[in-house]
Design goal:
Layout lengths: L1 H11 L5 E9 L5 E11 L4 E10 L6 E9 L5 E3 L3 E3 L6 E8 L10 E10 L2 E11 L6
Antiparallel strand pairs: 1-2, 2-3, 3-7, 4-5, 4-6, 4-8, 8-9
């Protein structure tokens, strides 16, 4: 019985764990919506296994965009590039990505999801969802 307990401890011990987070937002009035799923958000280092989904919710002739931002504990944000869905009403696009922390402490304090509706390069409306670090601020 002692050997079995030792084996269990050896199997469960491993590298530092990571948490997952999920968030959505939709513009109001509804014309675009999006979501982010972060499968692997460690206390320090790269957030990986990120899935972005973007939906065009209204037959208005506009296109929709989605992006992420990394937010530091100081409040400063580092924005990633917009991704576009130009395929029209009723369509969605999905992307797999990751985030590399740019702050001095190698930590992503918050991940910010932004979704917007555009006419050309003019933003018509937007929404935002902030995902707080599962590890807290430091």
């Amino acid at each position: 019985m002692t050997c079995g307990g030792f084996l269990l401890a050896a199997v469960t011990a491993g590298p530092a764990s990571a948490a997952s987070e999920y968030g959505t937002c939709a513009t109001s009035p509804l014309s675009s919506s999006g979501s982010v799923n972060v499968a692997n958000w460690p206390a320090r280092g790269n957030a990986t296994g990120i899935t972005l989904k973007l939906y065009d919710e209204k037959p208005d002739g506009h296109h929709v965009r989605i992006r992420l931002a990394e937010q530091w504990t100081t409040g400063k944000r580092v924005y990633y590039d917009w991704r576009k869905n130009m395929d029209g009403y009723g369509t969605y696009k999905s992307w797999e990505t990751y985030m590399v922390p740019t702050g001095a402490n190698n930590k992503i304090s918050n991940i910010v999801l932004q979704v917007a509706t555009y006419e050309g390069e003019k933003q018509l409306q937007s929404c935002e969802k902030r995902l707080g670090s599962p590890w807290g601020a430091d």
